[in-house]
């Protein structure tokens, strides 16, 4: 539907969602697009009034959730796969090339087969569908040989998985593959209650995942970022659900963490850190990463709890607790108490948190370095990792923020410096940083064609201010994991040897390549400014295999192929503008 432009123009004072859904506001939509693209400094430099900032935030959330499609996008957006809604679409509407049309037809046929175990969340029928699911629930097959618990045990000591790809059947039963619904399988424990922390949530789809294993009526706490009427009203419709929206204190931050916690009837606890939004499209034909903790039983005595026992040598429990404390939410207190009482001594990864704030930096006092964002990662690497002079830092992401006028502004001059830290750090040069992000041709060749780029929100305008970045870019190739055509929503970082046979660390996280996520030095390097909530887990050889490095392909398998494939002369990054 073609929206009329608001008659008040730039003087519009409305903040109501329905107004922005009924009338177009080109200037506010432009600012909102820049917010979603992470162009924080650029937007802040505009000198916007607080009212306009609030309006832009509302519009940015509507655009991110897919509720609002800017006027210039509407014609093509109606013909491509909507990236945030699990609703049935007609392939004849696609205006792409033949390959994309065929991919969409296949997708629709797959969705029709899956209809009995899915619940839409955008059409007002969520709870009716959910009730029907309760009455007649098919049990999803999780593999011919291994159930989820067997997969978790077999994946030790890493416990790291990729998500199954709906249109790549060969991925379904891979030992290192999980579906989101597998996290609630009874083989992992008899679920007592759970918590989901995320950015975007489709409640109907989420409940359908619980429904597959008949645990949909267990108490559920959902902490989310993107505004949703459905979520805000969920508690009044399903008494066992408690939903809380978190808005970071900075106008351009987001609640981007993707983490799950499950409490079981035997008193044990399990933590899951992953990379997907809780929406249908993120778990169908995109590549996601999942880390599943081993079961954490309760400590044997209160004395052990009081003395701080139950933590691992990685400090996972300590760092998880201090992260949750920053929310200042009463609803989180019971979960924090469960964590305090849990024995997490066998967890072998480090927790890497980001929480909004301005944290003082004290040069020369290593123990007083902010334990957040990239400086916390740097501190851990200095303590527990080794490096070689020719190591390469590989950053793999699904979104890119405003990086500054040159590589030294932040990407190489700050973020990569932290990722190069070790007990024997060698200074990084420009060529030792490589960024994996799909080029336009990668997306066109994906399962859903150009629509597959809906989860990759980098803009042409943002790139025009940092064209130097193209020199750092490498294509998405994952033939070894059967996921080249499944666009990556996973975010991962690694430091690998020059011959690509060893890695000194691997990091799975919700954090993309942006200052808002990782933090940036400000006030003449006196503080670290972080604007978003993020969570990740760091794999270090010292704690997992007892060595100095991972053997790539044997001890750990990266989500992409090595050596990387560099952009060619005619390649450019995928821009979300291509869908307009």
TrEMBL record:
Any one GO molecular-function label of the UniProt entry: 3'-tyrosyl-DNA phosphodiesterase activity
Localisation per UniProt entry: Nucleus
Species of provenance: Daphnia magna
Cellular component annotations (GO), alphabetically ordered: nucleus
Protein family according to the UniProt entry: Belongs to the tyrosyl-DNA phosphodiesterase family.
Name of this protein: Putative Tyrosyl-DNA phosphodiesterase
GO biological process assignments: DNA repair
InterPro entries with a match to the protein in the record: APLF_PBZ, Tdp1
Superkingdom in the source lineage: Eukaryota
Lineage of the organism: Eukaryota, Metazoa, Ecdysozoa, Arthropoda, Crustacea
Domain PBZ-type: start-end pairs: 4-26
Keywords of the record: DNA damage, DNA repair, Exonuclease, Hydrolase, Nuclease, Nucleus
SUPFAM superfamilies tied to this protein: Phospholipase D/nuclease
